[in-house]
Amino acid sequence: MSPAEGPDVATLRRPARVRLGWLLVVLAALVLVMLASVAFGSRIVGWSDIVAAVGGTDETLDQAAVIKRIPRTLLAALVGAALGLSGAVMQGVTRNPLADPGILGVNMGAMLAIAVGMATIGLYTATQYIWAAIAGAAISALFVYSVGSLGRGGATPLKIALAGAATSAALTSLVTAVVLPRGDIAENFQSWQVGGVGGATWENIAQVLPFLLGGLAICLLSARSLNSLALGDELAAGLGERVALVRGVAALGAVVLAGGATAIAGPIAFVGLIVPHMCRLLVGLDHRWLLPFSALTGGVLLTAADVLGRVVNRPDEIEAGIITALIGAPFFIYIVRRQKVREL
C-alpha cells in the first residue's frame, strides 16, 4: 500500500512501547465492559452485591442476577474474541479488507447446517450444533473462495466479497425453506438466528470452549506465516512457506472459531470486519501482534454491544447481533469507499 492509497506506513508500524501501551488499554477496557455486563441489565447491581455474588452468595435478587450474568459475560467475551480473531485471519488469508465470517457467507453456512440438522436428525446438544456449524462453515468458505477464484485475476477482494454476498443470500433463502415448514423447530431457531448471548450457560461454555481454544491455537501459530503471505504468494514461497498449506491451516482455524461462535451464539455479523481494521491502526500489520489484539478487542466489542442492548431498551433487551449490525453496516460502507476493495 503506497502513501497515496491509504494511511502512512509509518503510522502502521508501531514501536513496542506503543503496542504494550495499547495492550494495557484494551485489557482495561475488557475488564471494564465485563464489570458493566454483570452490573447493568433490567436491574442495576451495586458493587457490594457483585462481590458477594462472585463469592457464591445469592441471598438477594441482585446477587442472583449477577450469578446469572456471569456466564453471559464470559460467553460474550469468548464469542467476540473468536469472531474478531477469525476475521483477522480471514483477511490475512484472502488479503481482502472486506473479509468477515458474515460477509463471506461462513456464518450462513454454519446456520444452514444447523437448520438442516435440526430438521432431519434432530440436533439438540451444543456439541452437535458445533460440529454441524463447523462443517457448514467450512463448506461455505470453500465454495465462496472457489467461486471468487474463477475468471481472470483469480481471487480478487471484489470477486470474493460479491461471491460471499450472493452465497449468503442464497443460504438465507435455503434456511427459510428448511425451517418455515417445521413449526416444531421454527420458534427456537428464530430466537437463535438473531444472534446473541442471552442463553449462556456454564454447560454451553464448557462444550464450546475446546473448539474455541483449538481454533485460537491454530490461528496464533499461523501468525508468522500470515506475515509472509502478506508479501504475496511468490515472495512467501521464496521465503520457504508452503503457501497452499499455510493458507489452508490458517483458514481451518478461522472456520473453527467462526463455526463454534455461530453454533453457541447465532450468526453475529461485522465483529470480524470492524475489529481487525481498528487493531491495525493501533498495533500495525504484524500478525503476531494483530491476532491477539483482534481477539481481545473482539471480546470488548461484543461484550459492550451486549451491555448496550440491555441498557437502551430496559427492561427488555436488544440482542447483541442487532447492535453489531447497526454499528457494522456503516463501517462496511466506509471501508468499501475508503479502501476501494483493494487487497491488503
UniProtKB/TrEMBL annotation:
Entry keywords, A to Z: Cell membrane, Membrane, Transmembrane, Transmembrane helix, Transport
Compartments where located: Cell membrane
Listed transmembrane segments: 20-40, 70-90, 102-123, 129-148, 160-180, 205-223, 244-269, 289-308, 320-337
InterPro entries to which the protein is assigned, alphabetical: ABC_BtuC-like (IPR037294), ABC_transptr_permease_BtuC (IPR000522)
Cellular component per GO, a single term: plasma membrane
Cell membrane listed as a keyword: yes
Pfam families in the cross-refs: FecCD
Top-level lineage group: Bacteria
Family the entry assigns: Belongs to the binding-protein-dependent transport system permease family. FecCD subfamily.
Name of the protein this chain belongs to: Iron complex transport system permease protein
